[in-house]
Amino acid sequence: MTASDRSASPRPLPKPGILDIAAYVGGKSKVEGIAHPVKLSSNENVLGCSEQAKAAYRDAADRLHVYPDGKASGLRAAVSQRYGLEPERLTFGDGSDEIFALLCQAYLEPGDNIVQGEHGFAAYAIGARACQAEVRFAAEPNRRIDVAEVAKQVDARTRIVFVANPANPTGTWLTGEEIRDLHATLPPSVILVLDGAYAEFCTDPRFEDGLALARHAQNVVVTRTFSKIHGLASLRVGWGYADADIIEPIERIRPPFNTSIPAQEAAVAALADRAFEAASVALVEQWRPWLAQQLGGLGLAVTPSAANFVLVDFPATPGRTALEAEAFLASKGYLVRAVANYGLPNSLRITIGREEHNRAVVDLLAEFMNR
Ligand SMILES: Cc1ncc(COP(=O)(O)O)c(C=O)c1O
C-alpha cells in the first residue's frame, strides 16, 4: 500500500503493517460460573503488595486533581539510592512495557530491525512493528537465549536486541558472563535491552542484573518493573537505566505524566518494604522446586525456571493436551496461561502460587493426567 492509496481510501487507514500486528493477549482473569478463580496466568505477586505501599496509595487520594511530577523525583531518588544509580540516567514508564515502546519509537525507522529470542516476550515485537521495523527471531536451543544464535540474526539494520533475563514465558536465564559475551558480540550501534522484570527471583550467584554493565557501556538499557516482586501490576510503574545519551531522546518523547501520583508514591513505599520483597522471593524459592518435582512425577516436563512461574509441557495426545489441561484447570477455578502464541503449543505457564494453590494445581493435574 502506498501513501497515495491511503490518501485515495474512502476511510482512514493505519500505516502499513499495523493491521498485521497481533494485539497483546494478557492472562485470563475470568471463567464462566466461577466468581473468584485463582489467577495464576499473569505472573503477578500472589502475596498481593506491601501494606506500606497500600497506605501510600490511599494517602495519595487527596491529590487526584493535580498532575503528577513528570520527573517522578521522589521515585527517582528512591530507585537511585536503592540501586546506587545516577538519577539523571533513569527513565520511568507506564510499566516497563512503555519503555520498550519508547525505545522502539526513538531508535527504529522503517526497514530497521530488532532481534529477540524465538520465544521472546510479545511486547518487544509489538513495539517494533508499530514502528514498521522487522522482528528477527533468534533460535533458542533448550529454550534459552543463545549468544551465537542472536549474533547470527544481527545485521547492519539491527538497532535493538531485546533479552529478558530471566525470560518469559520460558523462565530460563543467562549468567552474567553470558550476558557480557552477548554484549561483546554486538556492534556499538546496537542497543542491548536487558529486561529484568523477574530479576529478583533469580538468586543464583552467577546471575547479574546488568546494572554494572549498563553503567559503563553506552549501548545497554536495563529495565525493571514494580509489577512482579513488588506486586503493583495495576499501578503500572517500570524504570529504565542507561547511558544519558540513550535516556535523553526517550525523555523527549515520553508522555510527560506517564506515572501517576498514587503509582509513584506506592512504588517508593514498596521499595522500602524489604520484608515484603524477601517474603515474595522466599515463597517462590520454596515452591518452584516443589512444583517442578511434583509435576515431573506426573510425567510432565518442566523447563528449569528462575522466575515466579514454571513452563510445563504436556503430551500432544488427545485428552492430555496443554489446551485441555488449561480448560480443565479453569473449570476447577485455576487460571493458567496457554503459550501457543510464543511458539510453545504444548506448554502451559503456571505462576507459582501460595501453598494451597500449588497443592491444588498438582492434585488437579494428577486427576487430569489419570482420568
Ligand atoms: C519479560 C517481561 N517484561 C516486561 C513485562 C511487563 O512489565 P510491566 O508490567 O512493567 O509493563 C512483563 C510482564 O509480564 C514480562 O513478562
TrEMBL record:
Source domain of life: Bacteria
| Enzyme nomenclature, EC number | 2.6.1.9
- Pfam families xref list: Aminotran_1_2
Aminotransferase class I/classII large domain mapped to chain residues: 37-363
Q: Does the keyword Cell division apply?
A: no
GO MF terms listed in the record are: histidinol-phosphate transaminase activity; pyridoxal phosphate binding
Which residues, renumbered to this chain, carry the PTM N6-(pyridoxal phosphate)lysine? K228
Q: What does this protein need as cofactor?
A: pyridoxal 5'-phosphate
Database matches in InterPro entries:
Aminotransferase_I/II_large (IPR004839), HisP_aminotrans (IPR005861), HistidinolP_aminotransfase (IPR050106), PyrdxlP-dep_Trfase (IPR015424), PyrdxlP-dep_Trfase_major (IPR015421), PyrdxlP-dep_Trfase_small (IPR015422)
Q: In which pathway does it act?
A: Amino-acid biosynthesis; L-histidine biosynthesis; L-histidine from 5-phospho-alpha-D-ribose 1-diphosphate: step 7/9
Q: Which HAMAP family match?
A: HisC_aminotrans_2
Task: Fetch the PANTHER family from UniProt.
Answer: HISTIDINOL-PHOSPHATE AMINOTRANSFERASE, HISTIDINOL-PHOSPHATE AMINOTRANSFERASE 2
Cross-referenced NCBIfam families: hisC
Assembly description: Homodimer.
Please state which protein family the record places this protein in.
Belongs to the class-II pyridoxal-phosphate-dependent aminotransferase family. Histidinol-phosphate aminotransferase subfamily.
| Protein name per UniProt | Histidinol-phosphate aminotransferase
